[in-house]
Design goal:
The radius of gyration is 27 Å and the shape is elongated. It contains 24 helices and no strands. Helix 18 packs across helix 19 (389-397) and helix 22 runs antiparallel to helix 24. The longest helix has 35 residues, at 274-308. With 503 residues, the chain is an all-alpha fold.
Length: 503
Amino acid sequence: ENIRTEVDRQKNRIEEFLHEDIETIITDARYGFIAGALRETYKENPIQRRRKTDAIDTFLTHKLFGFPIFFLFMWFMFQTTFTLGQYPMEWIESGVALLSDWLDGLMADGSFKDLLIDGVIGGVGGVIVFLPNILILFFFISFMEDTGYMARAAFIMDKVMHKIGLHGKSFIPLVMGFGCNVPAIMATRTIEDRNNRLLTILINPFMSCSARLPVYILFIAAFFPDHPGTLLFVLYTSGILIAVVIARLFKRFVFTKTDVPFVMELPPYRLPTLKSTTRHMWHKGQQYLRKMGGVIMVASIIIWFLGYFPRTSTNTDIYTQNIEQIALHYDSLIIVSTNAEENATLETEKYTQIKKYKEKKHVEQQEESFIGRLGHAIEPVIRPLGFDWKMGVSLLSGIAAKEIVISTMSVLYQSASENTEDTSMLISNMKKDQYADGSPVFTPLVALAFLMFTLIYFPCIAVIAAIKKESGSWKWALFTIFYTTALAWLVAFGVYQIGSLFV
């Protein structure tokens, strides 16, 4: 009786969600399986009348046209994600900046004010501006799933997947990884063969999840503004190619068992409602916002604390004396002068000189702070990649969640006189950052190496937990940590060192 009650409850839930009776839903699933089996085994009589679904499939699953159509759609998705998302992104930036300025004028100077403005608003605000881009990406993924095109994409990729030792059924969890790797890894439960399932799990972190998207957008906007959509497409494609190479190696040396037979299901096409697609999109957006108020806020506060203390550095007293002397010197000149224009010039010079020493004081305090010491400790490992200590700390913080890379940079690249809740200000400060010899810290080549490292290295803690749960062993989870990070170092090293020969 309990089972019957639960069956009725689930039947009603599915019917309410899909707006179809349960019999039609199950029938569609069965005929989808049959259609996939026929597509792979049966050559149809050419004079037989074709259904609309078959007519559309003639183009979308064609052995020649299928791939260009798929890649064109993917490129369009990334181009739209970047360009269309730019407008609401600027609105959110303005709102965050207004909130920060309002609090700055309202609160008295002190540690709590710095925590609230630089730590909480600077860290979380630096990430929340990318919410529109993530919503647009999820909209496209939901649209692909709801129309039935996702299954077609898996079908046309089936032969390619066989080349790397997998089959088309592994493709859907991999595409889901573009949204989030955690549910994508859980989706591998539909793969019956354990070896194929483990292999799909191990290469899934190379699919660029939405958490990496803010990092991509920031660096592309800063260093590759002329071809944003194309470079975003290249990054996602690079992840897929790396997954292919790794899968081939694993299939040859680790998972050597022969594939089990497989038939792809092709459900009928459906025209999704805007309501259902938007609901799926917003559900993912809610997860992102919850992350804002949880792990990202906590991490931002911790990073701010580590960068804020200790408040003194080696030359703090010297810089303070210099600032006081400059103020006294220019104030005495202003008192003597009676020329308004000359006074304005003196005020500007005073402000410029004081700002220069404040910046030097701020930079030295950061380098000698707790987070600066940690960054300098790991700097020898990442220096061959062209990275400095700030980039190292940002990557370390990204272990919790990749969005925190941006939060960390927003906190570390705070100038002494300005806040970096505004992405354009953050980009400006990154571009102006220099080594002691005056050479720039960031160049397009360093930015590309950083992007490749972010693409490949340690997936977030939630993904590691999902791998442990789905594989049933810590062995594969720990293996993923070490092999992805080592591979990221090698790829970034190759990009930077080989690129340095030509650029």
